[in-house]
Amino acid sequence: MAFDGAFTLKIVEELKTAIDSHIDKIYQPSRDEMVFLLRKKGFQEKLFISTKSGSQRVHFTQNKYENPATPPMFCMLMRKYLLNARLVDIIQPPLERVVIFVFSATSEMGDIVEIRLVCELIGGKANIILVGNEGKIIDALKRSDVESATRLILPGAKYQLPEKQEKLNPLKVSANEILKVAQNSSLLKTVDGFSPLICREIEGGFTTLEKITQDLKSGYNPTLILDQNGTAFDFTFTPILQYGPAFKNQRIDSFSLLLDKFYTEKENCLRINSNARDILRLINNLKNRTQKKLSIRLYDLEKCKNRETLRIYGELIKANLFSIQKGASFAEVPNYYSENLETIRIPLDISLSPQSNANKYFKEYKKTYTAEQTLKELTQKDREELAYFDTVLDSIERATELADIAQIREELSEGGYIKTQNTAKKQKHTQNQFKEYESQEGYKILVGKNNKQNDILTTSLASKQDLWFHVKNIAGSHVVVFCGGNEVSQETILKAATLAAENSKARNSSNVAVDYTPIKYVKKPHGAKAGMVIYTTNKTIYVTPKGENL
After folding, report:
1. Cross-strand partners of 542
2. Which CATH superfamily is domain 5-140 in?
3. How many CA atoms lie within 13 A of 19 on its CB side?
4. Cα–Cα distance measured from residue 406 to residue 370, given in angstroms and rounded to the nearest whole number
């Protein structure tokens, strides 16, 4: 992530609007997070600080964070020293990932004292440090180990800034001089405050050092980088082109909103992945087990192809009973089932009579016939099961909310794959939040996010004259255009088909076949799994998700 010294500079510029505000509330939602409510006339903001590894940052936030009923010790210490304190300045050591909030506070003796809240946002060493008179540490969120620390972060110790690397400041040194020095090394090792992302952008020729420096000095481009799926990928203070046309730069109104948006989506994805981990493990295990069963059954089914030979052996033995000696190990008889009537050798059981050998072959034939019919049914069920597992995995992969995972869990519970949830929890998860769009003519278009929603959308909500869409032979969402039998434009068909392709396992493919037909031709077979339907009288259109439609 690009929370480098340069980005810190842009955040600090934004945070300075809080100068002269007072701290009204302080709370600590988690071990690594602090929230400060700042107020002044015409101004109220929540200052959020995180030292969590991989998401260390400081910014204003509009998100709601829980205020624990019992505050942690560090939170109580912060309240003691900073509650009602006035923010007088915000300092950033030149292009360092360090932000120092300078407060004017009243001591227990009634004296006005300066208290500094230091936010060090450096990788795994991120910390929040409270510094009092004479630069001595009052306490820190993370204290250092006396024996191993290169600098002491302990109460009473003199606060020292993190060791600074010897690099060139692009705000003070010319671009030509920096690039000249970088020829013997790399830009990342030469220039101060720039992340690998920014250095790659310059070295790859997508922009210039002068342009980046100008954006840093006077530009205002809070930029969210979206990947090919429209998912938040990174953030920075300037548009990024190195990822090609599949990635997009989305300008956000402020740097704080940018961080709110990026980390909300990132942490939501982490929560979803964590919540879905056991389901993924279960479905993948079931899929592997079913695939193995299918392979064995297909092998056995292949062997059943010889069953007709068993019947012929029985018939030929029966036709030649009087010419076959009892106790013989084989019989050589003319094959009446062949045009050439060639002689055929039939293995015999020496312990059985010719008639018993014939009966044995008839019995094996019937047994193999029964096995073949059973295996055909079982392999069909295995294929249906594998197709169903693919739909569940696809739904999990496309889940954007915890409620989506809860509904998938409910579906698996109803299908007997996991233990049944209690009724109270189950009722909470039955709300269906379909993806909703509108066509050019104003028709509502709904997209199911999982098998339960697909069932409800297709079999309950839609009328017989509405138009139904689904990718051909691939796991994906049901899409319905609520047109009530009215004529639908080609643009609407194209839009609905593209939505079907985007919400399927084929979302990263091109020229995807999408079938569509009125709902009256879509049927759910009795006993079919959630989301499974059959359809007829369909047309097919080919589209490319998130690209130029073909």
Report:
1. 513
2. ibrinogen binding protein from staphylococcus aureus domain (2.30.310.10)
3. 11
4. 42
User: Would you list the domain boundaries of the chain?
Assistant: 5-140, 175-252, 304-431, 432-543
- Please say if the pLDDT value at position 214 is more than 80: yes
Sign for the pseudo-dihedral over CA of 370, 373, 374, 376: positive
Spatial distance between the Cα atoms of 389 and 383, rounded to a whole number of angstroms: 10
Q: Are 65 and 48 in contact (CB under 8 A)?
A: yes
Q: Which residues pair with 101 in a beta bridge?
A: 90, 117
For β-strands 22-30 and 444-447, DSSP reports them as unpaired
Instruction: Outline where 125-184 has alpha helix (H).
Output: 175-182
How many Cβ atoms from other residues are within 10 Å of residue 192's Cβ?
A: 21
Q: Which tokens in the block code for residue 398?
A: 């496309």
Cβ contacts of 156 within 8 Å, gap of 6 or more: 136, 137
pLDDT band per the 50, 70, 90 thresholds, residue 339: confident
Give the torsion sign (CA, 99, 102, 108, 109): positive
Spacing of C-alpha 207 from chain mean position: 31
Task: Please tell me the distance from the alpha carbon of residue 346 to that of residue 337, in angstroms, as a whole number.
Answer: 14
> Which residues have C-beta within 8 Å of that of residue 160, sequence separation ≥ 6?
151
The reported pTM is 0.69
Task: Give the SS3 label for residue 116.
Answer: strand
Residue 540, judged by CB atoms within 10 A of its CB (0-12, 13-18, 19+), counts as exposed
CA distance 455 to 490: 26
pLDDT digits 0-9 by tens, 224-249: 999 987 889 999 999 999 999 989 99
Q: Where are the extended beta strands (E) located within 41-143?
A: 43-50, 57-61, 86-91, 98-106, 112-120, 127-131, 137-140
Which amino acid would we find at residue 279? I
Collapsing DSSP to helix, strand or coil, 141 comes out as coil
Give every CB contact of residue 543 below 8 A, 6+ residues apart in sequence: 494, 497, 498, 501, 511, 512, 514, 549, 550
